[in-house]
Design a protein that fits this description.
heterodimer, A: 194 residues, alpha/beta, Rossmann fold, three-stranded antiparallel beta sheet, globular, B: 394 residues, mainly alpha, two-stranded antiparallel sheet, 18 helices, 2% strand, membrane (chain B), transmembrane (chain B), transmembrane helix (chain B)
């Protein structure tokens, strides 16, 4: 199993977001986490990435404790979170060049729009497409996506389904936090409702 | 701030900034020693101060308005008056600081014989700065203050007359306080808020300049991607190149005025400030985790590459200053390299941990030692390095 949690729980102030969570996601599987706003979907993903410490229980990702500060961990785990960002002065082509030569893999421009326009001038949807394309194109064993459908149009959401399916087919363990029911129906092997 | 704190701050400020006037002999001994000095040094100080004040005024930091004011309290036509008052306040403060440093240098090394020419130059430059800042931008205007570098080569009166005529010519143009759009005012307000928030939370590295697009499409395509990233990020801050030029002139001015201060100290401190804007590529990777994920390289490699590039830039900068007359020494070269290391160390600290204030009671005063320790990461290396560089044999 690439992702495993045992008795995982997070409490924010007086509020218990979730507790006693037992998860196991293997390569080539997709888990969708659903739930109302504030239920703790993003918090769970941050725990899986090591950017938030759980209140109780333990997490294992790629055989070890998650730690986003570790270059080795970052190499194996690809994410699109709220804090995912672009270099405003670089174009999508330059972003993908950076990614491709940094991770030592071929990354094509794919469906990324406006490849030679600086990121600062891209629309929210275009920025989202670039982030998602980059997250899946780079080598990864685990893919964590927090509400990836946000800012995407109808075509973009169909493309997103293909993107997630591609990652799963390549053998990655994928965890998606999403409100979007059609996406859940299409890509989920398991669903956890928080 | 309580009234007592304000009074205490004022007393301390008057004590510190007034000491050159009532402790002249002591300050002169510390800064000048027995070195021969010429009164031209105070003119150099004045020109440097005027250039910095002129350039700062051209930033037009007075052009901002709170969006709520624009929506609810902008019906009486007071906006241009408010903006102009703000411009005048900032302009007067900057030129008063320039005048203070001229007076201090004059007290210490003597005033020039042509005091009248100096006064006319001061008034003319201040007038031109005000005339330019109140109207819309002229392309390349931020480089104009560099013209003060030639003020020493031509008769002061000639320079002052040309400046005064330019100021009068611009005085009748349409003031930007009347024509500036609401969008620009709100944008400037947002930028100001970001700066103030960063300063309030001591997140000073958020104030490093943002990058601008680089025209080379394949800048990041190829081997040595970390080097490419650092070089591209540095070139994306090319608009900050004015700062090294100003600092180089300031170092020369400081050397002419205070010859007892060694080249090592001048080049070390100047080099540190010069390099800071160009540490932005590595600083942003430390500040924004989402950007760090684009680059698969260890921190060590990233820091080493940045330090290497900054060392090259710093040596080039120092080389130009040495060619212009600053004495060269091995210690000065070491100081420049220390400045590069200190700049990288400064911007690669983690986020400030306000939970580790480390309050220490010293002589009845509570000092946040833990917070200070975090803040001086970088400057600590600079200080120690410069002290050590002074002991390097020639």
């Amino acid at each position: 199993m690439l992702i495993r949690t045992h008795d995982l729980g997070v409490t924010a102030g007086e509020t218990e977001l979730f507790s006693g969570l037992e998860l196991a996601v293997g390569g080539g599987e997709c888990l969708v986490v659903s739930g109302a706003n504030g239920a703790g979907k993003s918090t769970l993903l941050r725990c899986l990435y090591g950017s938030q410490a759980p209140t109780s229980g333990s997490v294992s990702v790629c055989g070890g404790q998650p730690d986003e500060r570790s270059a080795r961990f970052r190499r194996r785990v690809s994410v699109v979170f709220d804090d995912s960002a672009l270099f405003d002065e670089l174009t999508p082509r330059q972003h993908l060049d950076l990614l491709s030569h940094s991770f030592g893999t071929e990354v094509d421009l794919g469906p990324v729009p406006a490849p030679d326009v600086p990121a600062a001038e891209l629309s929210a949807g275009q920025r989202r497409r670039l982030l998602l394309h980059a997250a899946v194109a780079r080598p990864h064993d685990v893919l964590l996506l927090d509400e990836p459908e946000r800012a995407l149009d109808a075509d973009g959401r169909e493309w997103l389904e293909e993107l997630i399916t591609t990652s799963v087919t390549r053998g990655a363990a994928v965890v998606v936090a999403s409100h979007h029911t059609p996406l859940t129906d299409t890509v989920a092997d398991y669903v956890v409702a928080l | 701030m309580k009234r007592a704190d304000v009074v205490l701050s004022l007393v301390v400020a008057v004590g510190v900034f007034g000491s050159p006037f009532y402790n002249t002999a002591l300050v002169r001994a510390q800064l000048i020693g027995d070195a021969p000095v010429s009164a031209a040094g105070s003119v150099i100080v004045l020109c440097t101060g005027l250039a910095l004040a002129w350039r700062a005024t051209l930033h037009r930091s007075h052009l901002w308005t709170h969006p709520a004011t624009l929506t609810w309290a902008d019906f009486h036509g007071n906006r241009p008056r408010t903006l102009t008052r703000r411009l005048l306040r900032g302009w007067a403060t900057r030129f008063a600081v320039a005048a203070y440093f001229f007076l201090v240098s004059g007290m210490l090394i003597g005033f020039p014989a042509d005091v009248g020419g100096v006064l006319v130059l001061y008034v003319a430059v201040a007038g031109l700065a005000l005339a330019m800042a109140r109207r819309v931008r002229i392309p390349g205007e931020s480089l104009l203050p560099l013209a003060l570098a030639v003020a020493l080569l031509v008769p002061l009166w000639t320079f002052a007359v040309v400046t005064a005529v330019s100021a009068v010519a611009l005085a009748w143009s349409e003031p930007s306080a009347r024509t500036v759009s609401r969008g620009e005012l709100v944008h400037a307000f947002t930028e100001r808020m970001v700066r103030r928030t960063s300063a309030a939370f001591l997140d000073v590295w958020a104030l490093l300049p943002a990058g601008r697009p680089v025209p080379w499409r394949n800048a990041l395509a190829g081997r040595f991607v970390v080097t490419r990233y650092v070089v591209t990020g540095t070139l994306a801050r090319r608009h900050a190149l004015g700062l090294p030029v100003f600092l180089a002139l300031s170092v020369l001015a400081a050397h002419a005025t205070f010859p007892a201060v060694t080249s090592g100290w001048l080049l070390g401190l100047g080099g540190y400030l010069t390099l800071l804007p160009f540490t932005a590529p590595v600083a942003q990777l430390h500040r924004v985790p989402g950007l760090r994920r684009w680059l698969d390289a260890s921190d060590l490699r990233l820091h080493a590459t940045t330090t290497g590039l900054l060392c090259i830039l710093a040596l080039m900068w120092a080389g130009v200053i040495v060619l212009l007359g600053l004495p060269a020494s091995v210690g000065a070269a070491v100081a420049v390299l220390v400045a590069a290391l200190a700049a990288v160390r400064s911007v690669t600290r983690g986020p400030l941990d306000f939970g580790s204030m480390g309050m220490v009671l010293y002589e009845g005063v509570l000092i946040p030692a833990g917070l200070l320790r975090q803040l001086v990461r970088g400057p600590d290396l600079l200080l120690l390095g410069l002290v050590a560089a002074n002991f390097v044999p020639v």
